[in-house]
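Before going further, learn to read the protein records used in this course. A complete example follows; check for yourself that the lines match position by position.
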Amino acid sequence: MKFVIKRQHLIKNIQYVVNAISSRTVIPILTGMKVEAKKTGIILTGSNSDISIQSHIPVQIDDEEIVSDIIEGSIVLPVPHFPEIIRKLPEEIVEITVDDSLITTIKSGKANFTLNGQSSSEYPNLPLFQTDEDFKLPKNKLKSLIKQTVFAVSTMETRPILTGVNVSLENNKLIFTATDSHRLAQRITDLEHTGIEEADYVIPGKSLQELDKIIEDSDELINITMMKNQVLFHTDRFYFLSRLLSGNYPETDRLIPNTSETKIRANRRDLMQTIERAALLADRDQNNVIRLDTLDSNRIEISSHSPEVGHVKEELPVASFEGNELNISFSSKYILDSLRTIQSDEVEIDFTGAMRPFIIKTPNDDSILQLILPVRTF
């Protein structure tokens, strides 16, 4: 095997694929990266028990030649050594050659490395699927769906199903929902006609976080293929396969209140900054709990108290206040996580009482919803 390639394109694609490679895998061959040279270009593959990532570097992009002097073949090269070598090479042009003994030579300028490779015949083949449950979504919309929900997945393995994001399709609507049983994040978007009447899957939160790192923030379409045990995100030059979580996701719709006793509309940035200041003195042993009290004349008070450190209280004018007076305590971390995912200047918070879940949303927009459980304080 042999090829000559422009280093910047090789580095970029290695960075995608290396996210799927773990030294803790029980399959030794998967600690390396598969490098395959074909007449159409170079294919890089990485895999672990949860995700597989494959990236294709074409021979030519627009009028620029990326890969040349190709002799077809494949090899599995050690990680992190192979990525680190490529990153530190002195010149833009890289030549990679593999001999019959699987010795790989990497040349760039005056630098000359040799690596011991492994036969790719032992590397598991990654299946490509096409099913009826296949639809397209702009990459930037997919990134938005992930960012506005994945932060709310559980980090505790006691209920594995809650470590994933519930992805459902119904009536040409795509719904992402995540909860750790203390908070809930939901984002809904319309799809063009998919031909899928109904579908329901749970994708591991860690898989979606990795996918979010890799895909660009563009309006290019990405194909999503849902299968029985796996989900595939793919474009012409990119392939991301993740396992699905098994089990029944809890019915979250019944957790979402449909009435409210108190409504507050506030500037999102001002509210965030006030909560961030209150969190500085929140008791860290008690989940950084802060308190919100409604005042007259469209004002609220945010406060926190730590017995060993001190206390803080700050008044904040709000755009509007409707309904009953309220005194409520909640995790500053949870509400800040929620506010950071909302992109509008104003937010609306709907309360149903001091000990009932409350909702954070964008005014006049039901496509994004964050729900937080309050904390009982004494």
In short: The longest strand covers residues 51-58. The CA atoms of residues 42 and 236 lie 13 Å apart. The chain has three domains: 2-122, 134-251, 256-372.
